Amino acid sequence: MENLSSFEKILIAVDDSELSYNAAAYGFKLAHKLNAEVAIIHINEMPVVMNVTGDPILGDSGIIIPEVMDIQKDAAEKLLENLVLKFGKGLIVREYILVGDVTSEIIEIAKKYEASMIIMGTHGRKGFDHFISGSVAESVIRHAKCPVLIVPNK
C-alpha cells in the first residue's frame, strides 16, 4: 500500500450528474487534505447521427453535428468551471474536456497526467441496464495503472 503522501496528482472524472458532483466534492476534499494537484476531466461521447431536419420553408436547417458538439463543449466548460470555483480554491487544477470513448480517454489522460489516483462516481446500474450499458467505473478499474476510488451513489 502506498503512503498517502505519494498521492500527489488526483484525476477526477465527471459527467453532468449529481453522482459525479458528489465524487468531485469528495475528490477535491481529499486533494486539499493531501495537498495534491487535481486534474478534472469530462468526456463527451460523439453524438449519434440521426435525422434531425429543420423546416426549409422557415429557414431552419435543423441541428447538425458540429452544433451539438459545440453545445456539449460549452456545457462541459461551464460544469468544470463551476466545480473548480466551488471546490478548487487553493489547489492547482488542470481541466480536460475531450471527445471520445469515456473509458479510453480517462485511462489515456491518467497516463499522460501521471495520476496517482483516479476518483469517479458510479451510477450503480444493475441487471439488464448494467448488461446493456456496462459500467464505465468498472472498465476504468480494470484498465487503470493507478488506484481508482469509486464514490458510491448513496
From TrEMBL:
Compartments where found: Cytoplasm
Entry keyword set: Cytoplasm
Domain UspA: 7-152
GO cellular component: cytoplasm
Transmembrane region(s): none
Signal sequence range: none
InterPro entries per the UniProt record, alphabetical: Rossmann-like_a/b/a_fold, Universal_stress_UspA, UspA
Superkingdom of this protein's organism: Bacteria
Pfam family, one: Usp
Family per similarity comment: Belongs to the universal stress protein A family.
Protein name as annotated: Universal stress protein
Organism the protein comes from: Pedobacter psychrophilus
Phylogenetic placement of the source organism: Bacteria, Pseudomonadati, Bacteroidota, Sphingobacteriia, Sphingobacteriales
